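Can anyone check this?
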Amino acid sequence: MGQLKHSESVWELLRGDEENLPLEAFPKVSVVIPTKNHGAEIAFTLESLLAQDYPHLEIVIIDAHSTDRTLEIAKSFRSEKIRILSVSQYALSEMWNRGLMATKGDYLSFLEPGTTYLFPRALRHMMRLVREAEHPLLVYSSYLKRVRRGENQLILNPLDQELLAQGITPTSFEACWFSIEAFKRAGTFSTDYHLQSGFEFLSRLSKLKGNVFAVTTRVVTDMPLRLKRKGERWVRIKEKWRAVRRHFGLGAALKLMLRAGTSS
């Protein structure tokens, strides 16, 4: 199915990837960023991406008619790596699919505006893992889950059907890089889900055979603490319940809903 890579020494974690590989050895990476009125966040993400020491990178912004300075700020970077496409409305799964169809990368990442890479060789680090793991369908890293109260949590799990059936994701979606082959085998993002399309796609991916995933314990991305809108929590729970029922059965879905009810 895949592998958890826990072999990095402390020195490797601190120094990053120092391999001097020829340019053609690196897979092409495409980053898709859906936006609508994200003028306050988009610059942080673009600055982080353009600071990457990586030879083959494209950034595709899918904008849903922003009325603030989002597009002005994005265009101000004047980078050939950035492309901007427009859609009529902000529908996350549809915007991801629009980006997927427009990109040219071998591996794709989907970032929420405000997400940043923690060090300039982050993409080299992840694509080195791709090479070492012989080009799996998915590579991902740990992520630090920020919380409003209490201690932040370090999250890393295997892409495991038993865990997914409990609603437990392997990591943040922003800490995932998918091969284009993953979409050829598992299909595109389902537009039946508004907030849990990523979880539903990971559930599909977990059922595939072969070299599915590889993992690094290093934290690569940083995501801002986002305040949930009123009613969003229950939308997420209901959509995850639907995905669990679809892929892992009614029994697993009922257990998930029971746990959600007792924790509310």
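Reply from J.R.: I decoded it. The chain is about 35% helix and 20% strand.
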